[in-house]
Amino acid sequence: MAMRAKDALGRFGEEVASRHLAAGGAAILDRNWRCREGELDLVLRDGADLVFCEVKTRSGTRFGSAAEAVVGRKAARIRRLAARWLAEHPHAPSSVRFDVVLVSRPPVGPVRVEHLRGAF
């Protein structure tokens, strides 16, 4: 089955984000972790922090910025999923952080990556 363009763009963004975070010293613990309530894009360790990272990828501004997509219900859902992940992976981190990585892939020009630490 062919991958939909939206799914392919999302996978591209997650790969770019993973490489960006790893280059900054983070250790990727989980990618696309799923349970019946949903999916966490990335779970990583950044120093002493356990980080739950939502990746948003856009090819334009038609649907607003990627940062605007992670508010309210979406942020609350990610927090619930993080609690579920922690229940299944008792790491006892010293701190937990919620980040967003914004990947912009314009039709022309280079890919841009913006890492919002402690976004919500």
Summarize the model shown:
It holds the Pfam family UPF0102. The chain is an alpha+beta fold and 120 residues long.
Number of strand elements:
5
CATH topology name, in short, is Trna Endonuclease, Chain: A, domain 1
Largest sheet: 5 strands, mixed
Query: How do the strands of the widest beta sheet line up side by side?
Result: 1-2-3-4-5
Oligomer: single chain
CATH C-level label: Alpha Beta
| Percent helix range | 25-40%
Secondary structure category: alpha+beta
- What is the residue-mean pLDDT, rounded to a whole number? 88
Unreliable runs: none
Number of domains: 1
- Rg, Cα atoms, Å: 14 Å
Work out the helix count.
2
Order of helices and strands: HEEEHEE
Architecture, CATH level 2?
Answer: 3-Layer(aba) Sandwich
Distance between the termini: 36 Å
Overall geometry: globular
**Proportion of residues in β-strands:** 35-45%
